[in-house]
Amino acid sequence: MLIRTRKRSDVLPSEITPQGAYLNRRQFMAEAGALALAALAPSSAFALQRPRTPPEVSAGPIWLQQQILKAHDSQYGKTDKPAPWGAITGYNNFYEFGYDKTDPAANAHTLKTDPWSVTIGGLCEKPGTRTLEDILAGVELEERIYRLRCVEAWSMVIPWIGFPLADLIRQARPLSSARYVSFRTLEDSTQMPGQKSRFSTIEWPYREGLRMDEATHPLTILAVGLYGEVLPNQNGAPLRLVVPWKYGFKSIKSIVGIDFIEEMPMTTWNQTDPREYGFYANVNPAVDHPRWSQASERRLPAGLFSDSRIPTLPFNGYGEEVASLYTGMDLTRLY
Ligand SMILES: Nc1nc2c(c(=O)[nH]1)N[C@H]1C(S)=C(S)[C@@H](COP(=O)(O)O)O[C@H]1N2
Ligand SMILES: [Mo]
Fold first, then answer.
1. Residue 112 annotated as part of some ligand binding site
2. Is residue 309 part of a domain?
């Protein structure tokens, strides 16, 4: 039996270069074409079987790869067709690695994801710093196929591997005074060169937050994998939040800190421009961004090559599960 024992950090830069192949337009076209063909076939394939385009470089430590292979199926998102690997890992927002959509895939190899630990603090009975291995020992991984709707009006269907954030929160035993959870990304400009960019208007590290009921909602997950593989760095390795009914910027990447707090936390985009980005950021076709409509979206990758748009759904189509969290709130004001 052949076991891959190389660590991510052993990979030579020259071996990483082929990942650039994901980025060029021809590759995107090929992926889009394959997707169109796949749409004609009976849709039985469980996304974990990775229909095509395995990563050029196997990422992540072997123990994590093995744990991800043990992830089980779930019923979430079975009716949506996931975007191809190349689109999900080649078209990203991760400003710590640059502002262009292809920058994260080109630059995120400088992020060192192993070893990794997360410091959990604030209003809880069990604060402390925990390794990723320790965190994953206490949870069960499953596949969740979710729609990701960026505030910029594009969207993708992504087959995450992860676990409910609620499972981690329960272990930390938050106090009843904890009303919000705040998250922060790694701060290290040697690994994240975008954090020293002169053009950046963002105050690093990237921060996000959720109300406690949102954080413990069963749809809210922490992801460690994608298409049955370890999460690529550009997608927020090794641990990122996924909140599918909110705009993508809530789904903070490469998390190193989680705090339970009493007051609504400062969050990166709300702080950068509060008129354009609210704390809640629930997907809402009825509330336009000041500079563009949110009524429709481009579903990628096909939407990269045509002007076709699909209607945006309230709460990104997850309203049945989450609308009750916001009963009595004016969502045009609390956007
Ligand atoms: N730390 C950090 N997390 C981040 C971002 C970022 O720039 N930095 N971008 C956000 C935005 S705007 C989106 S749309 C999603 C994109 O996730 P993806 O690249 O995996 O599709 O990540 C979010 N998480
Ligand atoms: Mo976004």
1. no
2. yes
